[in-house]
Design a protein that fits this description.
binds 4-nitrophenyl phosphate; globular; about 170 residues; Rossmann fold
Length: about 170
Amino acid sequence: MSQKRYGVLFVCLGNICRSPLGEGIFRHLVAKNGVDGLFEIDSAGTADYHVGEQPHTGSIHIAEKHGISIVDQRGRQFTNDDLKRWDYIIAMDDSNRQNLLQLDKEIERKLYRLRDFDPNGPGDVPDPWGRGEDAFQDVYNIIYRSCENLLTHILKEHGHVDEGTKS
Ligand code: 4NP
């Protein structure tokens, strides 16, 4: 029997700044830990403003600076199919979370804010839209350390105790 894959969807407003970084960093971490086969990963926005677009150049550059390519991603809007399809829906801030809950309250049990997993404490991943490189670097750091903990959490939750979480 084949191993079930854990589905993780990162969600922000536009799907061009924060959630593409979430998707790219989480992909990087699962590959680094040799557990890519266990995961299905994607990202989406609650709004349709940037459907079909590449991630924001600020996000592309900061990811590239850290050896992660997100250039192949394209913006898409969260759909009703996403409500059922994913095991973990990871919102970047509380307003994303509220927007998703309005679509279906039933998803609350699998809906998290990324910074629920931040070792430096909970809160929102600030929106770097319209801000400079420092803002994108801050967001990158927050997302990276939170994704490390998220990966550990999911692996432990499913009893994959032997898999490490190398950053
Ligand atoms: P994101 O950032 O939600 O992190 O992708 C934003 C991108 C675009 C807009 C707002 C936030 N916008 O208003 O177009």
